[in-house]
Amino acid sequence: MWETRAEDELFRIYCTNCGNKLIGDADKGEQVCPSCGYVTAGQADEGPEWKALDLEEKSKRVRVGSPTTLTLHDLGLSTDISMEMRDAHGKYLDPTMRATVEKMKKWQSRTRTSNSQERGLAIVLAKITEVCDNLSLPKNVAETAAHIYRTSVRLKVAKSKSIMGMTAAVVLLACRKCGVSRTLKEVARAAGIEKGAAAKYFRLILKDVEKDYVPPPSVEKHISKLVNLAKIDPRVEHLALYLSRATNDSKISSGKAPAGLAAAYVYISCVMRGEHLPQREIAEFAEVTEVTVRNRCRELLDNYIIKQKLGWAE
């Protein structure tokens, strides 16, 4: 005989025939014994009471809101008045009611932020979302940037600081933490500030908020980004990645910008593959100077011997 337990008061979790633990079938609302096949009904269906045949029908019938997000000051828990200006039957509102709804929408946006701190947080989070959209960054980068800024607010680091400076700093740090290749110049350009100002606030965030070391994007990520921007043959990218792994030495990479090394690997790979791509164009895509590309290529060729095997095509 098998022992009864407190969980069996609502429904059985052990088989009455063999005593083994039952497994649930959520689709049928049943419980099945995996040993003897005994079936018992009574499992609660935790799904919705409606059915949908496609994604469009599902989006229309679902009655829950969007998930919480750190990119909104209220975590997205409040509701917004729609911009469609339609009633419950789908008809457009008359001019009088439209003016009333506009006033309601204005006062709703004002009452969502009860004090100056919430208003400032809402402004900065909106700027973070805007910069991430301009750079075509994934959603996890925007969420990470919002979390970093919320931490800086809690530590009172963001007080009396430039809005766009802090925005550029947290977005750049979020890109590094998420492994997305974006340079300081790109983030500063998207935020509309000078590169030096963005670098100053980035150092402030690293010093007072992010205590752990966050490494910059690797040379491999810069190579992939450069090949995608220049629309080069993928075989060139494969060769450049192979060269970067084969020549991964501290005497080459120590103190060097990853973008310059990536440009050198891509240029050498283009020459070996017979792709005609001048150093000037590679330097423009990598946002470095031609002198940097030439110096990195010279250092690589002086320290390593690169051999290429030639084969005859039948």
Characterise this structure:
This protein is mostly helical and 314 residues long. The protein has four domains: 6-41, no CATH class; 75-112, no CATH class; 116-208, Cyclin-like (Cyclin A, domain 1), CATH 1.10.472; 219-303, Cyclin A, domain 1 (Orthogonal Bundle), CATH 1.10.472.10. It has 13 helices and three strands, in the order E-E-E-H-H-H-H-H-H-H-H-H-H-H-H-H. It has a three-stranded antiparallel sheet, with no helix packed on it. Helix 3 runs antiparallel to helix 4 (139-154), helix 8 crosses helix 12 (279-286) and helix 11 (258-273) packs across helix 13 (290-303). The longest helix has 19 residues, at 116-134.
Number of domains: 4
CATH architecture of the largest domain: Orthogonal Bundle
| Low-confidence spans | 1-11
Q: Roughly what is the average pLDDT, rounded to an integer?
A: 81
Instruction: Order the strands across the largest sheet as they lie in space.
Output: 1-2-3
Write down the Rg.
29 Å
Head-to-tail CA distance between termini: 77 Å
The helix content is 40-55%
- The general outline is extended
Q: What is the helix tally?
A: 13
CATH class of the largest domain: Mainly Alpha
Q: How large is the share of residues in beta strands?
A: under 5%
